[in-house]
Amino acid sequence: MNFIDPHVHMISRTTDDYEVMRKAGVVAVIEPAFWTGQPRTEAGTFKDYFSSIMGWERFRASQFGIRHYCTIGLNSKESNNEALAEQVMELLPLFAMKEGVVAIGEIGYDDQTEAEDKYFRLQIELAKEIEFPIMIHTPHRDKKRGTTRSMDVLEEHGMDPTMVVIDHNNEETVREVLDRGYWAAFTIYPNTKMGNERMVEIVKEYGTDRIIINSAADWGVSDPLAVPKTAALMLERGLTEQDVRMTCYQNALTAYGQNGEMKESDWEGGFDVDQNQLFEGNRILRGQTPKTGKSTNIIDN
Ligand SMILES: [Zn+2]
Fold first, then answer.
1. Dist. CA 289 → ligand 1 center (Å)
2. Which of 9, 123, 134, 196 is buried deepest, with most CB atoms within 10 A?
3. Residue 203 is part of a domain; what is its CATH number?
4. Domain that holds residue 190
């Protein structure tokens, strides 16, 4: 079975993760631009980060048979450094138009400050102008209010809900998000918050329409196999293969395929992988024998 993990920060994951993900059936990933655990102090760091998630990381994924896409945006946390935020805003239109960028994101609220609100609105306008989908990061604190407020603001700006994925939902937010016409994404965190047991119950209750599952794996405690593991549990608990296909593959493809950058033909039937390849003079191997072949069996080669 093929899976898409539409929210995973591979820049902070290892080559082992890529190998197990490919083995488990992950064919494509989306890497949202976010903060990096520690506040950045220069616009240049953002510039290099954006270049890195659409350059080296995209290459690294391809070397393990996985297609890699990204989103570009100024995250809510770092919107609070307004002098820096102004400079980052100038970079966004340039980077958003590059190959493999499927949305503006993760944007939205963290502490729901005035500055966060300002840069959230500016980025909604950018997405509208370039006709890109938006990935919304909903706050971990005061989630329900922050989620409602995010949708209110999107509507104030006339954003079409079918172009917006509201991420990090839970049982308290899902109903309103679906009722208002948005895609509802869920992050499966190991042992806490939105575990995969709870996810199965949500799919049983709400069905598979516009529901998307992701790992949001990053540098913190997280599981890059959250999507295939939840899929396995869904089947075990009596949900169908079609349910799994919708929530762990098709809905992400439909939502994030809307600007034409992510297409099933990018991976369908396998693409050629050659680990002899270099990216700006650098390779992923450290003396190992390079593997070559189709992406569909590169890991078993
Ligand atoms: Zn994230």
1. 34
2. 134
3. 3.20.20.140
4. 3-263
Average pLDDT, the chain: 96
Percent of the chain whose pLDDT exceeds 90: 95
Residue 271 lies in a domain: no
Distance 188 CA to ligand 1 centre (A): 12
CB atoms within 10 A of CB 107: 30
295 is a domain residue: no
**Gap from CA of 108 to ligand 1 centroid (Å):** 12
Tokens 């949001």 correspond to: 216
Residue 91 lies in a domain: yes
Tally of structural domains, the chain? 1
3-state secondary structure of 188: coil
Ion ligand 1 neighbours (CB, 5 A) are 34, 216
Would you place residue 299 in the very low, low, confident or very high pLDDT band (cuts 50, 70, 90)? Answer: confident
What global pTM score does this model have? 0.97
Residue 192: per-residue pLDDT:
63
Q: Work out the angle between the directed axes of helices 43-54 and 82-96 (0-180°, nearest 10).
A: 30
228 within some domain: yes
Instruction: Please tell me the distance from the alpha carbon of residue 26 to that of residue 64, in angstroms, as a whole number.
Output: 11
- The Å distance, Cα 269 to ligand 1 centre, comes to 29
* Alpha carbon of 183 to ligand 1 centroid (Å): 16
pLDDT in tens, 264-284: 999 999 999 999 999 999 999
Give the residue-averaged pLDDT of 217-244. Answer: 96
